[in-house]
Amino acid sequence: MSEFDSSSAVFKSRANKLAALLATGEERTRLWRPDELAAIFRHQMSAPMLVDLSGFDSRTAMRLRTLSEAQGLLLKSFADLFQHSSPLIELLELVKDFAKANLDHPESGLPGEIAAALYYTSIAAALVQLDERISQLPDADLQRGLRWTLAQIWLDEKTKELLAQALEKISGGQKGTGP
Asked: For 72-126, how does the pLDDT look when each residue is reduced to its tens digit (9 = 90+)?
């Protein structure tokens, strides 16, 4: 059995593959193909919220459990929450905070694109379903983020529809205007 020579492997590797590997902290978008992002997003949308959001402090985790099971809502997944006709605003805020924490964390296991999509989708759900704003972003920045998210080819149609409704609402019915 031969021993692996890492130095030799590095020198024999293609330059573009090494550049992508070395740039992982700088540019995460190169790491995932659209079909991979689609699979990750589908998984994330169907994943139990309690698993991902339980990383908060124990008090918040207990509150999350209570909220997700409150009033017979039985919101188990992110998709359940985003598509609910009257989601609890506290849950949407928790998801937004979870997504933002993952977006800002360089060692997050969640790809930045997925975290950004969860972030903007939670904001969109609050705008569309509750007519509430859970973000302090100025309209122009929010529109830009909603447009970016909506443009992702790996998103499912229900999420795109929710984002489009939020964009229309925040744009005052003028989808094509703004930055």
From this structure: 556 678 898 899 888 889 889 988 988 998 887 777 788 999 999 999 999 999 9
Query: How many domains would you assign to the chain?
Result: 1
- Joined together, the tokens standing for residue 41 give 């997003």
Spatial CB neighbours of 11, under 8 Å, sequence gap ≥ 6:
none
Range of the domain at 134: 33-170
Q: CA–CA separation, 84 vs 91, rounded Å?
A: 12
Q: Do 99 and 45 contact (CB within 8 A), yes or no?
A: no
Within a domain: residue 122?
yes
Question: One-letter amino acid identity for 117?
Answer: A
